[in-house]
Structure formats: structure tokens, C-alpha cells
Amino acid sequence: MLEELLIFTRGGLILWALSGGGGSLKASPVDALIRSYLLEDRSADGAGVSQDGKHALKWAFHNGLGLVFVAVYRRVLRLLRLDDLLAAVRAEFARVYHPKRTSYDGFSDVFRQLHLEAQARADEMNSGNAGGSKQAGSDGDSGKKENSGGDPKPKDGGAFDLSTLQNLRNRVIRRNNKKPNNKPDIKGRHKNPNEPSDKKLDFSDAAERGKVTDHVAIKEGQSKMDKDEQVGDGPQAKGWFSSVFQSIAVGNKVIDMSGLQPALKALKDRLMTKNVAEEIAEKLCESIAASLEGKKLGSFTSIASTVRAAMEKALLRILTPSRSIDILRDVHAAKERERPYVIVFVGVNGVGKSTNLAKVAYWLLQHDLSVTLAACDTFRSGAVEQLRIHARRLQIPIFEKGYERDTAVVAKQAIQEATRTKSDVVLVDTAGRMQDNEPLMRALSKLININSPDLVLFVGEALVGNDAVDQLTQFNQKLADLSSVPAARLIDGILLSKFDTVDDKVGAALSMVYVSGAPVMFVGCGQSYTDLKKLNAKSIVNTLLK
Ligand code: GDP
């Protein structure tokens, strides 16, 4: 359901609101949300996620009239034809808008009608009748067609529409990723041939065979989480990026959009070769075009450096979501309240959940925090033993109850035990579930609802690129659908695993943050306990523009 639809001027004056509100944007409950996304310097249509992760918003501009149209909705919902509705609202409002008029009460009836029509189109699409109803590409032309009175072009169903993501994934994966050899191994895992053969932290086989002999505490040095990575300014003048834009270098004149288009197209293609999903690459280019339109370049400014700066800004904005989480600070806050901080690791089989859980434990231990592991993968044989090996090596307690138990209950008992023993953090390992396996997803949803962890961390493999984006979206959707409580808990943060194996195909990080609004909190970059890093947005930007 649409929670809010606002029409306001670029100056922030609300002209019409679905909930009937008027007046200044400051008074609106979605003020922060809108301000953080829109009033800065965005000028292309787009989508975003609220700070608490619960709401999503989509916006459209009418640049000619200086109007902004924003729809706010519960993030977990699949709002079909929302772009369609926004475009129709934009077109109809443009007809009645007058700069001197500030009250548009009568627009409510028009909106109701537009909403009904959009709903009908969505229903039609859902029932399969709209197989031929083409999802038009982005027109990238906010607000210019309305005055002609023509029908607004429907675009796709929105950034959170699963079908969009499915298509997006298929397209990009096909183009960029040779599918890994998907033959499952003996544990049902899908191995990747590019995976390094060094299995330093992979104890799963030993665990299954009962050959657990390692009782020695490991000392591998400082976790990379706490080491600052030096990143330069990235590719300079002679790089690919400059060469594409150099040809349209201008001196002392206004940037001409038509001259820029081929270069933007080349940029989009280039981003896609680095695993950036097509839709996102397209949005980035649109937003760059919009921010450059009409800009005058000084005689010594090259268009390449102007575009690069705009691109960097847009990428950094995506990679640095407003919803940031400081785990160490939050652990200490929980400690003061005499309870452990709980992190639940979720993700599909074989992505590196338990390995990276152990790396997180190692990092926490280096910060003088006490950690308990909770073996809540009571489904896959060998999982408990594998975690036990990590616990032994790290010399930390593990709470385990074997297999075929109710994982929600095991997690609850583990947290109780950690509270009793004054452990600072509980790291909960869960069964790797395929997001389309309903009983397993229901169990995960129950575990999360009953135990209200501080952090639900999604582990996604950087290597499989946009497959991980698809998994993430579907996990969120299932957690929302299967939740027994009204305010469903969704994924709070991302751990991007196997980043050391992706070379320059770093786009998955961008896509995952873009579609979920959840920050990448850890990056797994190898098979030692120290191989855990923070996401370095600047280095990703450099790699993408290389
Ligand atoms: P789980 O089934 O999700 O718990 O996955 P595991 O933790 O058992 O990991 C699966 C495989 O991925 C193991 O061989 C790990 O050593 C490997 N792995 C995990 N994280 C990384 C990483 O950051 N880089 C690399 N190269 N391999 C990793």
C-alpha cells in the first residue's frame, strides 16, 4: 500500500499530499527521508530507502515546473506500476499547476482515479493478461511529455519489484559472469571453480569425518578490519574513462546533452562489464546527465574530469548509505545494559557464512570483547562440528544442541546462556537456506522474530555478482511475508564474502546496497581469520572507473 504521496516544489513547499497534509516540508514525517535523497542535488527520477530501512521511496521530477513527486511505501511491498502511477500523477498535476496557487485539494479526486487505473493495470499484469504490455525503457525525460497530453509511458515495476530484479540479474549475469560450475558437492554446496584451492578456514570436511584435532589458539595477527587501506585518486588522465570523454572536450561552453550521450552509453556498458546491474548503471548515467545538463565548463576544465567527479559523487552516495551501523559502539551500549549484542548470519549454503562468522569473532576478540557462538544450523550435517572447530581455535564458548532442533529455541537458549556468562556478543550461525524453501525460511523468520537480534547480517558472495542481489531481495521478501509480527525484521547489513576472487567485477557491492539500502559492513577477502575488511567505497569507485 502506498503510505504517502507528496507533491512539492523544489523549495520544499508541499502542494498536495495523499494524507491531506499541506504547508512546509519540515512538518512532514517523511521530511528526513526526502531531504536526504532529494533536496541535496538529485535531479533525475530515482528510488531510495529510508534510514530505518522500513520505507522505500520513489521520486520523479518535473524539471520545467520545478516540482517533485514522491511516493513512500513499505519497503517490503511489491508495488507494481508505481512508476506508471507517478508518471500519471506528474502529468495530471502539471495540467492544473500554477505557480501562484498553493492549494490543490481538488487533486485528491483526480489522484483516486489515477490510483484506481494504475491498480487495474497492475492487476491485469498480475493475472498474466499483460504479457504483451511492454515495460518501456527509461524515458529519462522528467516532466517534458506531460504538456503534450499524451499518456505517460509506463516503466518497470520499481526498484523493489522482484521480477525487475530477476530480469536485471539474468541480463547482467548472462553478459558478465560465466556461470560457475554448479555441480553440488557432497554437502549440497555449489562450488565455484574460481575458488582458491587454499582451504585454510574450511573445516567442514574434517568436521564431517570427525577428525577435529585442532585445540591450539590461533594467532594470525591484526584483522584487516582495523588496518587503513591507502587508496589513491584512481585512474588518471590517460585511462579509459578520459579517452571516452576527451573526444567531446569543450572549452568555455555549455555541456551539450546530445554530444554527451554516446560517452554515457559507453560508460554504462563499461559499468556493466564490472557487474553493475543494468538498471543501476542506467540510473547512474541518468543522474550524471541530469547533474551536468546546462552546466558551463571553464576553459581549462575537461568534460572527462567533470563527468568523473559527478560519477564519483553518485557512486559514493550509493555506497555510503545513511543507515550506518557502528557495531563496536553498539556492542558497548548493549554491554552497559547487561545483555549480549546478537548478530544472526543468514545466507544460502556455501557463501561463507560460518567462515566469515569466525572472522567477525576474531575481530571482536581483538577488541577485547567476549564472544559466544550459537550453532543454529541444525539442518546441514557437519555444520555444528565445523563451528566447533572455529570455537576451539578461537578458544571461545559454543552453544550447541545438535541437529533437528528448533533453531529459534536453540538461539534463545544460547542468548540466555551468554547473558548468564556475561558474554558481550553472540554470533548465531544459521542453516544456509534457499530463499525459495518456505519451511526453512519460516524457521529463519521465527528465529529472528523470537530473538530480536541486534543485527541481521546477510552474507552474499561477491563472486556470483547479481545472483547475490537476487538472493538478498528474496530473503527480505520472504522475511517480510513469513513474519508473524506486523513490523517484520529485515536484513540490516551485508557481509560481502570472497571479495578477493572478483578481480575488477566489484559491481555486486553497489547493486546490493542500492536495492536493499543496507550497508556493506564487512568484506570477506580471503581464508584467514584476519581476512575481513571494511568496504572501501573509494577503491570501489576507482575500480569501476578504471
Ligand atoms: P557456509 O556454508 O555459508 O557456512 O560457507 P563456509 O563458511 O563453509 O565457506 C564455504 C567456502 O568458502 C569455504 O571453502 C571457505 O573457505 C570459502 N570462503 C569463505 N569466505 C571466503 C572469502 O572471503 N574468500 C575466499 N577466497 N574464500 C572464502
From TrEMBL:
Subcellular location: Endoplasmic reticulum membrane
One CC-aspect GO term: signal recognition particle receptor complex
InterPro entries from the UniProt entry: AAA+_ATPase, Longin-like_dom_sf, P-loop_NTPase, Sig_recog_particle_rcpt_asu_N, Signal_recog_particl_SRP54_hlx, SRP/SRP_N, SRP54_GTPase_dom, SRP54_N_sf
Annotated region (Disordered), positions in chain: 124-210, 215-234
GO molecular function, one term: GTPase activity
Database matches in SMART domains: AAA, SRP54
GO biological process: intracellular protein transport; SRP-dependent cotranslational protein targeting to membrane
Domain SRP54-type proteins GTP-binding as annotated: residue spans: 519-532
UniProt feature, compositional bias: Basic and acidic residues: 141-158, 182-210, 215-230
Keyword set, alphabetical order: Endoplasmic reticulum, GTP-binding, Membrane, Nucleotide-binding, Receptor
Protein family according to the UniProt entry: Belongs to the GTP-binding SRP family.
Protein name, UniProt field: SRP54-type proteins GTP-binding domain-containing protein
Species this chain originates from: Panicum miliaceum (Proso millet)
